[in-house]
Design a protein that fits this description.
It holds the Pfam family Flavin_Reduct. Keywords: Oxidoreductase. Residues 14-157 form the Flavin reductase like domain. Belongs to the non-flavoprotein flavin reductase family. By secondary structure, the protein is α+β, with helices and mostly antiparallel strands. It has one domain (13-156): Electron Transport, Fmn-binding Protein, Chain A (Pnp Oxidase, Chain A, Roll). The protein has three helices and twelve strands; from the N terminus they run αβββββαβαββββββ. It has helices spanning 3-15, 62-67, 81-86; strands at 19-20, 22-27, 33-38, 41-46, 49-56, 70-75, 100-102, 108-110, 115-127, 130-142, 149-151, 154-156. The strands form three sheets. A seven-stranded antiparallel beta sheet has the order 3-2-6-9-10-5-4.
Length: 164
């Protein structure tokens, strides 16, 4: 089969798979906050508590994220679509677009997130044109906010009818 046909079909199927939306954050060597929008996020293990996410090899912050010892997964709330968009745009000061603060572990945390998992890097795995980063969860912030979802290039919350 034609490779582009396989890629197109793959993207079609994956685009029809709803996911939550996160912003992964860390700091560089100068303690400047860095972050990017990520929907390739999943839980891995309960003992120890492990999560994973992946980063494209071509992303400008790739060297920092693949070398950092700590990162935070900010699970965006359903009213934070603008933050998702801001952290997906290149060459802007992403952190000036939202409220945030440094955590007690010196990681940038986005205010109003549905939840935050602060992690220490557990393992890095090269996988095609991405690096999979597995983090051990070392601190958790949880709220009762609904998560932001991504489906077919659109963002939104869980409809109330879902719970009926």
């Amino acid at each position: 089969m034609d490779k582009s046909l396989n890629t197109d079909r793959f993207l079609e199927v994956m685009g029809n798979y709803p996911t939550g939306v996160t912003v992964v954050t860390t700091t560089n060597d100068l303690k400047v906050p860095l972050g990017l929008t990520v929907n390739s996020f999943a839980s891995v293990s309960l003992d120890p508590l492990l999560v994973l996410w992946s980063i494209d090899n071509s992303v400008s912050t790739y060297p920092v994220f693949t070398q950092t010892d700590h990162f935070a997964i900010n699970v965006l709330a359903n009213d934070q679509a603008d933050i998702c968009s801001s952290f997906a745009i290149k060459d802007i000061d992403r952190f000036s677009q939202c409220e945030w603060e440094f955590s007690n572990r010196n990681l940038p945390i986005i205010s109003g997130a549905a939840g935050v998992l602060q992690c220490k890097t557990f393992k890095r795995i090269e996988a095609g044109d991405h690096m999979i980063l597995i983090g051990e969860v070392i601190d958790i912030l949880s709220t009762d906010k609904q998560p932001l979802l991504y489906h077919r290039r659109k963002m939104g919350g869980i409809p109330d009818s879902f719970y009926e």
